[in-house]
Amino acid sequence: MYDMGTRKRALALVDQGRSLNSVSKETGVSRAALRSWRIRIEPLDPGRGSPCPRCCGIPEAPDNPAAYSYLLGLYLGDGCISALRRGVYFLRVACADAWPGLIDACAEAVQSLRPANKVFRVQRQGCQYVTCYSKHWPCLFPQHGSGKKHARVIALEPWQQGIVDDYPWEFIRGLIHSDGCRITNWTTRVVGGKPKRYEYPRYFFTNVSTDIIRLFTDTLDKLGVDWKQPNSRNISIARKASVALMDTHVGPKY
Questions:
Q1: CB contact at 8 A, 242 and 228
Q2: Helix (H), strand (E) at residue 235
Q3: What is the rounded distance in angstroms from the CA atom of residue 144 to the CA atom of residue 137?
Q4: What is the largest CA-CA distance in the chain?
Q5: For residue range 56-107, what is the model confidence (pLDDT) as tens digits?
Q6: 176-249 domain in CATH 3.10.28.10?
């Protein structure tokens, strides 16, 4: 067993970028212990804990509902929750390198929900995984389950639906940031005997889960956004007034 001072000193050295081997030699703490401390969810100081509101039975949980609504959209699109040993889970959201602002927004949302836990950014080819370890991710995202999302039922709990109803644009933004885009379409028309090019913006959302598609379109309906479904996995928003609404509250990825 290691005392609290030793643990804090060792983790401070690791946070400076030191290798586990060098920190182990300097502090006498085993590398296995260092690895365990790095991924543990609850802080080493019990007084600094960040309790899970769902486990505490708080109906209006979580504390930052706007960030939760945004992260829920990201999770349903590009997120997953994996189980580790001893009841620990890690949330991972894949964010393309092309959108650094999106990566920052995702990390901020994750941190706001579990402020006592460390948020990591793991670089992979073409993207970063925003990850965070916690015992409580399944509490906050009960849609967690084995297999791909489109192969199982995805339905919001009443408390989740209440948050989405209160913060619908944050939910739409999360879904667009994960599985959507804003593009510029063009077409040609003959004017005065000559072809003329016209350009117009459009939003697309693509997902193979019919349940997630329905969550997206139901929320759009409540917001007064017109949409069309050209096929089973795509939603198009092209009417000028609706695009203007989306531009005001969502905007392109950045």
A1: no
A2: strand 234-237
A3: 8
A4: 85
A5: 555 556 778 999 999 999 999 999 999 887 788 989 999 999 999 999 999 9
A6: yes
